[in-house]
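Render this sequence as a predicted structure.
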Amino acid sequence: MRQASKDDAFAKAMEYGLHVDGFLAALLGGVIVRVTVLVLLALGPSGTAAQQS
């Protein structure tokens, strides 16, 4: 019986770790998307281009 409770504790710890990993992955994904958008805005065509007469 003692082994089963140890396995249950391990399973709960692993499940918690997966939730933390998912949260950290979401944060990292958000940072990557924001940086990508900011870089594309900086490198993209500007809205105040000089117009030729």
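Summary. The two ends are 87 Å apart (CA to CA). The chain has a mean pLDDT of 79.
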